[in-house]
Amino acid sequence: MTPIITAFEQSPDRGKGQARDMRVRWALEEVNQAYDVRLVSFTGMKEPEHLALHPFGQIPTYEEGDLTLFESGAIVLHIAESHAGLLPSDANARSRAITWMFAALNTMEPPLVDCEVAMLLEREKPWYEERQPVLEDRARKRLDELSRRLGDADWLDGTFTAGDLLMVAVLFRSKESGILEEYPNLSAYVARGEARPAFKRAFAAQLAVFTGAHPSR
Amino acid sequence: MTPIITAFEQSPDRGKGQARDMRVRWALEEVNQAYDVRLVSFTGMKEPEHLALHPFGQIPTYEEGDLTLFESGAIVLHIAESHAGLLPSDANARSRAITWMFAALNTMEPPLVDCEVAMLLEREKPWYEERQPVLEDRARKRLDELSRRLGDADWLDGTFTAGDLLMVAVLFRSKESGILEEYPNLSAYVARGEARPAFKRAFAAQLAVFTGAHPSR
Q1: A-B interface: how many C-beta pairs under 8 angstroms?
Q2: SS3 letters for A186-212?
Q3: Which of A142-151, A168-177, B6-15 has the lowest mean pLDDT?
Q4: Hey, of B64, B87, B98, which one would you mutate to test binding to chain A, going by the most A CBs within 10 A of its CB?
């Protein structure tokens, strides 16, 4: 059964990998699962039909027969659990990979998103100059700790897992801000993720929405 | 094998259920799994011994034989997967329960924590008066959506799951701010969580650290 995901009809980044359907597309590509995409508009996301799928009126959602999921982390975990390739078979290694999934979304993403949100919404405010460096330092604290843990390893815990997929996806979003360049090993880590054929296919599919090539992928 | 978790030796809330070991204690109590607690100081959390367990220098951690985990969401999921009682046996219902786990930690917790952090760290700043209502409105948007989805149901998707456990734990942290009182159905939902015997045992055990009763629980 071909799952259906939702994605932005008009994404603020014009399909450059920032929107959270990127993670789900990437996971589906890693496990070679074909999928369909239904595009939703910003107003459509707030209508009852979409809210029935996603109570918080966002993308992505995931429909597979009777099952409807939301939250990119939960969707990636569902894909990883239903296919081989994104979670180790050893039980302890599997739990550690899931730990990195939560770490990506709960520990790394919030301070990085805080920097982004302030840049987008508070740049004209009188406090921006004083407050933005504080936010960046909060993000740097987490990046320092992640960089120290990764060291010179290729991936966070042995082979590539869904934990790396989400961590790379989160860090990738912050590339444009320049903060990642301060961490050569994290930059190289993200580059390794971007070099994966599945990442490239997912990125191209997301970009195709904005270049007219969607939905004939 | 008795798992060992870590918790604050000196918690800012003096053991009133705000620290994130509460969620893990609650999950362990729900499945009747005994556990040991190792208390760590704020300086101890940043030392190499603890950083080997938790790369971000926080609590809780979870040790069970050769396995070490961090991130409260990942620990609760590990507990839910290794014991009956916190995840439905039906595969679709199980995936939906996990979706609520991610929703609690990724969609609900960040805007609620943003309000708390600003109250703690920015109350004296000249922008506080203008900015705090914006943060509260961001949190209210999510609370509105959650309230609408919950409606008059007892739990988010049928029976109590690890998704409810994390959602109640996240909302519980915001009780003191008063914002939850604007949502009678969410207040009742949190009260239902607090009324569970496992919640009460976990709460008492966390509080005991600060009343001298720990570790003889």
Answers
A1: 105
A2: HHHHHHHHHCCHHHHHHHHHHHHHHHC
A3: B6-15
A4: B98
